[in-house]
Amino acid sequence: MLKKLFLPSLVLVPLLFLHPYGQVQAEQPLPKTTSVQPVPEDAVGRSRFSSAPEYLRFRDQGSALTMSVPLINGPFYIYRLKGGITLFVNDKFLNGDVPLRLAALLAHMPAPAGKAQTTAEPFKDDADRTILSYQTSPLMRNVKILSNETLKQNGSPARRLTMSVFTHERDTIVEILWIGDSSGAWLVQFDCNADDTNTVDLLPRLLSSVSVGEDTEK
After folding, report:
1. With 0-12 CB in 10 A as exposed, 13-18 as middle and 19+ as buried, what is 9?
2. Superfamily holding 9-214
3. Using one digit for the tens of pLDDT, what is the confidence trace for 90-110?
4. Nearest-angstrom CA–CA distance, 157 and 109
5. In terms of CB atoms within 10 Å, which of 20, 95, 103, 218 comes out highest?
6. Greatest CA separation found in the chain?
């Protein structure tokens, strides 16, 4: 179970539609090819660090996702669901020395052999199911769709969904990106307090930094 990490239940809602019958495998060692690694600044260029001080590579089952994140104050915990979905979760981020009320969830969903994610069309169904899960959850109120659009990101098919929702006695902004590659698809989600305008403004830049491709490191 996700016993090592406290996250608001909001961040776990996508799991209801990602893998309805999935369960987290308990305490089984993951292969070395599933990991989170820092990317040296000189490997991505200084301009990529303009929006956040960390740049990370998430590796899983032959695919790699790289992106900017705020300064992290604890590791990403990694979990494997039955069915092959891998989760990376963290809610320990800093702005200087100040903790951010920011939660991150990444999920890698490998495609069946020979079924690469070449278009963003399936992501529309994912977004629709996500919206419905928020609208029907007893934990969520005042769900508003701020944007829901298909895009091409760094050469990959993608879809981005932005919502505001009242949950856990506060207004929250939810940013979700689905992005596909030859190995399947990734989901990246950030949740933060709506009144933290600096973090809210940062989230689109974090998501726009996301790129996916083959994991060339063995």
Report:
1. exposed
2. Mog1/PsbP, alpha/beta/alpha sandwich (3.40.1000.10)
3. 999 988 888 888 999 999 998
4. 15
5. 103
6. 47
